[in-house]
Amino acid sequence: MTAATPAPAESFVAKMTDGVEILVRRFNIGKGPCLAITHGNGFAIDGYRCFWEPLLERFELALFDMRNHGRNRPTGADGHDYLQLARDVGSLQAAIKSRLSPGQKLVGVFHSFAARSAMKHATEMAGIWDALLLFDPPNVPPRTHRLYEAMRGFELKLVDWACKRPDTFTSADEMVKNYRESRGSSRWVPQAVEDMGRAVVRRDESSGNWVLTCQRELEASIYLAALTIHLWPHASKYRCPFKLIGADPDLPGNVPTGVANQALAQENGYVYESIPGTGHLLQIERPEECRQAMLSFLRELHITS
């Protein structure tokens, strides 16, 4: 990998249904199918470089941060909810597709809360992709399900953690140091620690400090919303081919998303694969294995060789 995030061939701003603008960066324009890739709650797509950069060898990439994240201008709480996030997925899909060559395939690659947003878009708004990859969405089952309390407890712990996390730093290096010393990021590849630490903070010109690009209270609101979105759809609700790729459900002491996604897949007829030895940030823990899980599905669909 290169020492820094590569420069895009084109950048453009996509306008959401409520007027919010989201930056999209295109790489390798016209080189194979296009992968539209984004990130999880509180993170940024530049922090996933160890996952997506090797894909430049065979794909066009359209990278974007979800609203109130990464390179986007903060817009606050208005529209920071799953209904609008699902609409954002549709707006971004349409904006990217309008720039592709005739017949060029468009594949959505989503992680965590973005994957939940893409699921809602696909199953409730008839969102159609040539293929859809869902990396460990934090799926909360119905209240009567045996795994509901485990996922509820997980999300509530994240709410508490997000509200209390530091949100002001003297430099981006301080955020990198926090990740390097955190048990939660101990499985990340070293490059992801550096990339993510710099991707999730921005310089606040008024104070001169560095602050989280996603305000911690907005991050917490998404964790809490996971408990009321009521999204546990059957595979038949999707109108496009999709694959669910989850954290390791058998890893001792792992977060419950791995087990929840295994249950969702088994109960509702999903194409599914788990990545051994990974937690919720699987794409930056074992990026090569995650790429192969995605590529095998795209080969089956004859989207790539």
Key terms for this structure?
single chain, 305 residues, alpha/beta, Rossmann fold, 8-stranded mixed beta sheet, 3-stranded antiparallel beta sheet, 10 helices, 11 strands
Layout of SSEs?
Layout: E1 10-15, E2 21-27, E3 34-37, H1 49-52, E4 60-64, H2 82-97, E5 106-111, H3 112-124, E6 131-135, H4 148-164, E7 168-169, H5 172-181, H6 190-199, E8 201-203, E9 210-212, H7 216-225, E10 242-246, H8 257-268, E11 272-274, H9 282-285, H10 287-300
Parallel strand pairs: 3-4, 3-5, 5-6, 6-10, 10-11
Antiparallel strand pairs: 1-2, 2-4, 7-9, 8-9
Describe this structure in words.
This protein is an alpha/beta fold. The chain has a domain of 206 residues: Rossmann fold (3-Layer(aba) Sandwich). Helix content is 36%, strand content 16%. The chain contains 10 helices and 11 strands. An 8-stranded mixed sheet has the order 1-2-4-3-5-6-10-11, sandwiched between helices. Strands 7-9-8 form a 3-stranded antiparallel sheet. Helix 2 crosses helix 3 and helix 5 crosses helix 6. The longest helix has 17 residues. The radius of gyration is 18 Å and the shape is globular. The model has no long low-confidence stretch (mean pLDDT 97).
Structure at a glance:
This protein is of the alpha/beta class and 305 residues long. The strands form 2 sheets. Strands 1-2-4-3-5-6-10-11 form an 8-stranded mixed β-sheet, with helices on both faces. A 3-stranded antiparallel β-sheet has the order 7-9-8.
- State the end-to-end CA separation: 23 Å
Q: Please, what is the average pLDDT? A: 97
Helix content: 25-40%
Tell me the series of helices and strands, N- to C-terminal.
Answer: EEEHEHEHEHEHHEEHEHEHH
The tally of helices reads: 10
Overall body shape: globular
Tell me which CATH architecture of the domain at 10-145 and 231-300 applies here: 3-Layer(aba) Sandwich
CATH topology of the domain at 10-145 and 231-300: Rossmann fold
* Biggest beta sheet summary: 8 strands, mixed
CATH class of the domain at 10-145 and 231-300: Alpha Beta
